[in-house]
Design a protein that fits this description.
The protein is α/β, with parallel strands linked by helices and 334 residues long. The protein folds into two domains: 197 residues, inorganic pyrophosphatase (n-terminal core); 118 residues, Diaminopimelate Epimerase, Chain A, domain 1 (Roll), CATH 3.10.310.30. It is 35% helix and 19% strand. The protein is built from eleven helices and twelve strands. A six-stranded parallel beta sheet has the order 3-2-1-4-5-6. Strand 1, helix 2 and strand 2 form a beta-alpha-beta unit. The longest helix has 16 residues. The relative contact order is 0.10.
Length: 334
């Protein structure tokens, strides 16, 4: 159904390296999202089925919303394992724009060969083998083709993880990165038995009461600027404490300012628990490349979804961001 396999030459090189190595380390980025988690779990399960010793490692735990995914026994965090306990023959970075995005997990990547699988425009092209496909809706799309070329059977568990990678990074197949190829891959995964309704229920219809209380508090801070083209919303530590929510519960809050008619760029400022930094999420509707804005702030991402971590107090971070935005010639007068 998916027809020709893209990037066949590079994927064949990756297949060759993975086949030659018994111990394989897979690294996710800090604060892993659905694409990083789904891609990593799918690859780890497939390699394990081929007799490999695959470990999926991240600095931070997986958000609770992904607890329904299979293959969790193959994942661990840096708090549970020491670097000397890992001796990989090859390290695969999934959905990481650069090696530093792995955070504290990077010190475990002691292999001579690094493989870089990603689809972000801000990827640095690192690694001995680098496959960065800007046309891929998600890194999970690349893992799908890698597994097909490798001859690893894509069973229901693997298909579910890959489907979650696709559906989360496309906003439920609503964002501009949704392509015909993405739909073809999704259709093949559904043919493997994935139930889209059940996945959607797990991802979008199983919110905690505390997360909704957090949203209630955050919506009081909603503001618009630049003649309605820019909107922002805040999530402070006090809101988290008041609602009993976690910082991961704030991940979807940025979608609310983005949903306002006429808004092109949406911001969500999320205060770190120690109040020393602010996690900024940026979204755009169709025109502005927010990965470039994030780049000016030391971050990165996609044209329609990006982020950055800004050191300093909440007020300092907001002042810096709005200072950058005020200097951009992207706003119209009406």
């Amino acid at each position: 159904m998916t027809g020709e396999i893209p990037h066949r030459d590079t994927l064949e090189r990756i297949v060759g390296v993975l086949r030659k190595n018994k111990d394989i380390l897979i690294l996710e980025h800090e604060k892993p999202d659905g694409d990083s988690i789904g891609s990593g779990l799918a690859l780890a399960m497939a390699l394990s089925s081929l007799g490999k010793k695959a470990i999926l490692l991240s600095q931070d735990p997986h958000p609770a919303m992904y607890d329904f995914l299979p293959g969790r026994h193959l994942h661990t965090t840096v708090s549970c394992i020491e670097p000397e306990d890992v001796d990989p023959g090859v390290t695969v970075f999934v959905d990481c724009t650069g090696p530093d995005r792995a955070g504290k997990a990077l010190s475990y990547a002691r292999s001579e060969t690094w493989i870089n699988l990603d689809h972000h425009v801000s990827n640095s092209g690192f690694g001995q083998i680098s496959l960065v496909d800007l046309d891929a809706a998600a890194t999970g799309e690349l893992v799908f083709f890698l597994l097909k070329l490798m001859g690893a059977g894509i069973n229901l568990d693997i298909a579910t993880c890959l489907y979650v990678a696709l559906v989360t990074d496309t906003g439920g197949f609503r964002y501009q990165n949704t392509t015909p190829r993405c739909f073809h891959v999704a259709a093949e995964l559904i043919d493997k038995g994935v139930n889209p309704s059940q996945v959607a229920d797990q991802l979008y219809e199983a919110r905690s009461f505390s997360s909704l209380m957090l949203l209630k508090n955050a919506l009081h801070t909603l503001e618009v600027y630049k003649n309605g083209q820019l909107a922002s919303i805040d999530v402070t530590r006090a809101m988290l404490e008041d609602s009993g929510a976690s910082l991961e519960d704030a991940d979807s809050v940025v979608n609310y300012p983005r949903s306002i008619a006429g808004v092109e760029v949406a911001l969500c400022f999320k205060e770190s628990l120690d109040q020393t930094a602010v996690h900024l999420s940026l979204r755009s509707r169709s025109k502005v490349d927010v990965s470039k804005i994030a780049g000016l702030l030391g971050g990165g991402g996609h044209p329609r979804a990006a982020g950055a971590v800004i050191e300093g107090t909440f007020e300092q971070a907001k002042a810096r961001v709005f200072g950058v935005l005020d200097g951009l010639e992207i706003w119209t007068d009406s």
